[in-house]
């Protein structure tokens, strides 16, 4: 059976399957079976290849709560991700700016040049994903949990109908997550961040400032952060309320100060310095 037809048939399994699997989720709250049961319940709505759940808290290193990857896939999706690329993940930065609880497509929350960014070309393409959509929920103490549903390889993207069906259960996913992961904030308390914080900066700006201060100015720090995230000069100009020409001048000055000549080198030096700080 063609992949597309298999996935469409999956949607029409009926309410009985969903209700049975949902009851198993409820029964397993607070146990190791919960995440597996939640993924099974979501798969009864529509099929996907992988799922991973991360907890995010301020500048702290994320915690992987659950995943369905093979050992080889885990290296890329979890181990490599936690070495630093998570800082440029659009879902991580979306949690930092407190997007509403809900279901999001990657392409809908990513910066305008995300698919041309060095993060995408150097890290994200290694995942081999066709599409990624994520539930974003918020727990106690400011912790965010992102539950990612992924389709890989030649799989089709989630259709509008599939997305609507998965979106319709956002309140249920949110309620289940609130109860199951209600104590996850305690896992962050014992591992303080090595990076400086600033009340009025984004998480990536805090990181850039900690790595490059005082070599670049506060405004240049903002520009570097948005370049790394995948924003175009036009997008940066709108965000900072300056002209595109001024953004380009900032970028030239930044490259000169850091003795680099391209976005690729900026990405490389960023992660080299990040590894140094955390090792």
Describe the structure.
This protein is α+β, with helices and mostly antiparallel strands and 279 residues long. The chain folds into 2 domains: 187 residues, Transcription factor LuxR-like, autoinducer-binding domain (Beta-Lactamase, 2-Layer Sandwich), CATH 3.30.450; 76 residues, Winged helix-like DNA-binding domain superfamily/Winged helix DNA-binding domain (Arc Repressor Mutant, subunit A, Orthogonal Bundle). The chain is built from 15 helices and 5 strands. The protein has a 5-stranded antiparallel beta sheet, with helices on both faces. A hairpin with a 6-residue loop joins strand 1 and strand 2. The longest helix has 16 residues. The mean pLDDT is 89.
Strand order of the largest sheet: 2-1-5-4-3
What is the distance, rounded to the nearest whole angstrom, between the alpha carbons of the first and last residues? 49 Å
Q: Which descriptor suits the 3D outline? A: elongated
**Oligomerization state of this entry?**
single chain
SS-based structural class?
A: alpha+beta
Spell the H/E element sequence.
HHHEEHHEHHEEHHHHHHHH
Mean pLDDT: 89
Number of strands: 5
* CATH T-level topology of the largest domain: Beta-Lactamase
Q: What is the helix fraction of residues, given as a range? A: 40-55%
The unreliable regions are: none
Largest sheet: 5 strands, antiparallel
Give the tally of structural domains.
2
Count of runs of 4 or more consecutive helical residues: 15
